[in-house]
Amino acid sequence: MTVVTWNANSIRARLERFLRWIREHQPDVVALQELKAQDTDFPWQNLADLGYAAAVFGQKTYNGVAIVARSPITGPLRGIPDGIADADARWISGTTNGVRVISAYFPNGQETKSDKYAYKLTWIRRLRDWLCADGLREPTVLCGDFNIVSDALDAAHPDQWEGSVLFNNEVCGLFRELLDAGLVDVFRQKHPEGRLYSWWDYRALSFPKNDGLRLDYILATPDLAARCEDAWVDRDQRKGEKPSDHAPVWANFR
DNA sequence: ATGGCCAATTTTATTGGA
């Protein structure tokens, strides 16, 4: 089973590229983030025509997450199921092919002194608490744009990001707490040397210079992680006309 | 070669992204 996580940075702006990519690569499961679209603007029919089911948690203008899969998706949940109100569409889960799939778009946080950063920390702690309490009772992949540089190996120039909302002791500590809840970073497992990235700024020739960050992760419960054969970044999707600033991150499970 | 911000909004600047 192949699992991909991709921050599309607007599903409408990326529609042609997205559908072409689905047709060419036929992934089994895709976790999408930053749809920047309401449910009614999601390409349900295009995907159905290609043989894919979808579970969507859309939002106008900002955020928005979805799961797309070749097998039916059962028991979809929209929003971290802890009963706490959240105005942002950042989390969806569903089960397909016997695996619980979560697509999560972690808050960016803007600046460390901002309310948005406080919200980021609160949001990640909610996710951690849910994972620890009852989130990992079945084989699970937690996929998404974490907006966290988990380690200096995940940045081309870590010194330029140290202390930012993406890379500091607080968010790195919370990332470790997500792993401690019972998850394995399967891409790290396959590439312990690091220096591979999933996001490059649109500005300043960041992609040709490979001045990137790894922000997109696939975390799996240990049973699944043991079945992971390979993990890779689909750099071709950052090339050409109208790319997202994120490339899809893939993992293949036996 | 992969190329010098981009996307959405009742737009012609502003907000947010990372």
By DSSP, the count of extended strands is 14
Q: Largest sheet, described in full?
A: 6 strands, mixed
Output the number of helix runs: 6
Unreliable stretches covering 5 or more consecutive residues: none
Structure notes:
There is one protein chain. Helix content is 23%, strand content 26%. It is an alpha+beta fold and 254 residues long. Strand 6 (91-96) and strand 7 form a beta hairpin. Helix 3 runs parallel beside helix 4 (169-180). The model has no long low-confidence stretch (mean pLDDT 97). The chain binds one DNA strand of 18 nucleotides through residues 9-10, 12-13, 34, 36-37, 60-62, 108-110, 116, 147, 161, 164-166, 199-210, 213, 215, 235-236, 238-240, 242-245.
Brief digest:
The protein is an alpha+beta fold and 254 residues long. It has helices at residues 15-25, 44-49, 115-135, 169-180, 186-190, 222-225; strands at 2-7, 29-33, 53-57, 65-69, 74-78, 91-96, 99-105, 140-145, 184-185, 199-200, 212-213, 216-220, 228-233, 249-253. The protein has one domain: Endonuclease/exonuclease/phosphatase (Deoxyribonuclease I, Chain A, 4-Layer Sandwich).
Keywords:
254 residues, Deoxyribonuclease I, Chain A, six-stranded mixed sheet, DNA-binding
Lay out the secondary structure.
Layout (H helix, E strand, L loop, with lengths): L1 E6 L7 H11 L3 E5 L10 H6 L3 E5 L7 E5 L4 E5 L12 E6 L2 E7 L9 H21 L4 E6 L23 H12 L3 E2 H5 L8 E2 L11 E2 L2 E5 L1 H4 L2 E6 L15 E5 L1
Parallel strand pairs: 1-2, 7-8
Antiparallel strand pairs: 1-14, 2-4, 3-4, 5-6, 6-7, 8-12, 9-12, 10-11, 13-14
Helix pairs in contact: 3-4
The structure holds one DNA strand of 18 nucleotides.
